[in-house]
Amino acid sequence: MKIDVIGDVHGCLEELKELLQKLGYGKNDTTYTHPEGRIPVFLGDITDRGPASMKVIQLVYEMVVATKKAYYVPGNHCNKLYRYFLGNKVKQNNGLETTVAEYKSLSDDQQKKIKNQFMELYEASELYLQLPEVHAVIAHAGIKTSYIGRTDKKVKTFVLYGDITGEKHEDGRPVRRDWAQHYHGSDWIVYGHTPVKKPRIVNKTINIDTGCVFGNALTAFRLPEETTIAIPSKQPYVEEKFSFFD
């Protein structure tokens, strides 16, 4: 097995297409495939903030559900959109408002199709992926060794939101513990969620959310090669959105 884990896309369709092409994937009707059978893995947060969340949903659906040529794990933004589609009361902020506006601009038939595709994608997904063939665990915001194999509420919160303390910084961001410093497992933990300017490797963990939607880059981590490939973002650069971790 050879995989390409793709960081948080956040509706950046053009960058995603460029990255897939740079990784060697070819366009085939409505999807992308690799001549060597490599498998893309979407790391969650495929929507919100960026310019083309609806088309990203459609592409990921085609690759993961329709053709089964890719894997996907949900992120916190995916979870929020799913709850919105269920009819739950969720605040339309932190990017969801852009996705909802895009969704509401569609015709009724298009809305129904997109909603059904996203809900099917989300409901079919595992909370995180264990891929022993490449000695890796793929989890949106990371995972502790003691949580691997579990899917209870505590683990779900960690995987979607990171190691949050419940406190907030002055700018409203949640305070997170640097859990990666305490990971000493032998498998890679590949995650995103917290934007960093370049892939952050700590022990056997790698954060590949390089803030495409905030103007930096969209990054993929290749296994078993243990290499990264990135595409520069086309979005405006927002310095304050990047992590304070080293």
Beta content comes to 15-25%
Roughly how many Å apart are the termini? Answer: 32 Å
- The counted number of beta strands is 14
Mean pLDDT: 95
SSE diagram, text form:
Elements: E1 3-6, H1 13-22, E2 26-28, E3 31-33, E4 39-42, H2 53-66, E5 71-72, H3 76-86, H4 96-104, H5 108-124, E6 129-131, E7 136-138, H6 153-161, E8 164-168, E9 174-176, E10 188-191, E11 200-202, E12 205-207, E13 217-223, E14 227-232
Organism: Virgibacillus halodenitrificans (Bacillus halodenitrificans)
Domain Calcineurin-like phosphoesterase: 1-196
Protein name: Bis(5'-nucleosyl)-tetraphosphatase PrpE
Summarize the structure.
This protein has 246 residues and is α/β, with parallel strands linked by helices.
Give a structural overview.
By secondary structure, the chain is α/β, with parallel strands linked by helices. 28% of the residues lie in helices and 22% in strands. The protein has six helices and 14 strands. It has helices at residues 13-22, 53-66, 76-86, 96-104, 108-124, 153-161; strands at residues 3-6, 26-28, 31-33, 39-42, 71-72, 129-131, 136-138, 164-168, 174-176, 188-191, 200-202, 205-207, 217-223, 227-232. Strands 5-4-1-13-14 form a five-stranded mixed β-sheet, with helices on one face. Strand 8 (164-168) and strand 9 (174-176) form a beta hairpin. The radius of gyration is 17 Å and the shape is globular. The protein starts with a strand and ends in a 14-residue tail after the last strand.
